[in-house]
Design goal:
Length: 121
């Protein structure tokens, strides 16, 4: 794929995707802010992303040392023109993360430059 044929093109494409699919802005518009103390219903996070990402998205989580479900990744399928597509069932997934669970609330932690692996001890 031409967009990924060099490091500068790869990172340029990543920045363009970040602008096109502005997740931070979508969350801010829905009054979802990073917090160590406040969690959200999974549906609330998903619905905030629909205007930007459409329905074909999967929020992925980890469980931290305190048993909290923490949002770590957004999985979305893109077509070769970088438009959002549908998530394919049965495709091999190499991600170490799992889909967030509906029955548990989801934490959206703020970034912590000094301790990125444990931003909310």
């Amino acid at each position: 794929m031409e967009a990924f044929s060099s490091p500068s093109k790869y990172f340029g494409a990543a920045l363009a995707l970040r602008t096109t699919y502005n997740i931070d802005s979508a969350f801010q518009s829905a009054a979802i802010i990073p917090s160590c103390n406040h969690s959200y219903q999974l549906h609330t996070l998903q619905q905030a992303l629909v205007p930007v990402m459409g329905q074909a998205q999967e929020l992925q989580c980890v469980t931290d040392g305190q048993g909290r479900q923490v949002l770590v990744q957004l999985k979305v399928s893109l077509f070769s023109n970088f438009s959002a597509g549908c998530l394919e069932e049965g495709t091999q997934d190499f991600s170490p993360y799992r889909p967030c669970e509906n029955q548990s609330r989801v934490f959206y932690f703020p970034p912590n430059q000094k301790n990125p692996r444990d931003p909310c001890p």
